[in-house]
From TrEMBL:
GO terms for cellular component: cytoplasmic replication fork. The gene is topB_1. The keyword Isomerase applies. One of its GO terms (molecular function) is DNA binding. Its EC number is 5.99.1.2. It comes from Salmonella enterica subsp. arizonae. It is an enzyme of class 5 (isomerase). InterPro entries: Topo_IA, Topo_IA_cen, Topo_IA_cen_sub2, Topo_IA_cen_sub3, Topo_IA_core_domain. Residues 1-152 form the Topo IA-type catalytic domain. This is DNA topoisomerase III. The lineage of its organism: Bacteria, Pseudomonadati, Pseudomonadota, Gammaproteobacteria, Enterobacterales.
Length: 152
């Protein structure tokens, strides 16, 4: 932490960084490979170039994230049965950003909302015919409607 405070002072102090935190990366039984770049424990009077400072900051930020709380996600699953066919829509929502709220980390998932959607018989007939799955390709209009109802 001392070296980070010297070479990347804008990263510390953060209220969420707790050096006493020990998560799964500290447990050899839960980590298969130990190949990581971490900042050195010693600080020095070395002056880093702009590019070196950027790389060091990225490494230090990644290192500090292990001392932050984990992100918390909510999962949502919608299951529909239409004409004896099962349709499933799944979504994952970020409930608490964890360290992301302090360092503007992009989430692996986008915030999405499940919208109300009325699926007409015409839409469903592209997917299901007489209770059996059809290999018919849905029209662009149907694809557009499905993307509107269930955004990625």
């Amino acid at each position: 932490m001392n070296a980070i405070s010297v070479h990347a002072p804008d990263l510390l102090p953060q209220p969420v960084v707790n050096p006493d935190t020990r998560n799964r990366c500290w447990d050899d039984k839960k980590v298969d490979a130990h190949h990581a770049i971490i900042p050195t424990a010693r600080s020095s009077s070395v002056h880093l170039t702009e590019n070196e400072a950027k790389v060091y900051t990225l490494i230090a930020r990644q290192y500090l994230m292990q001392f932050c709380p984990d992100a918390v996600f909510r999962k949502c699953v919608i299951e529909l049965e239409i004409a004896k066919g099962k349709f499933v829509a799944k979504a994952r929502f970020l409930a608490e950003a964890g360290c992301g709220r302090y360092w503007a980390v992009k989430s692996a998932t986008r915030r999405t909302t499940v919208r109300r959607c009325r699926l007409s018989r015409k839409v469903m007939s592209c997917c299901v015919k007489r209770g059996k799955w059809s290999n018919a390709k849905p029209s662009p209009r149907v694809i557009s409607l499905m993307r509107h109802c269930f955004p990625r």
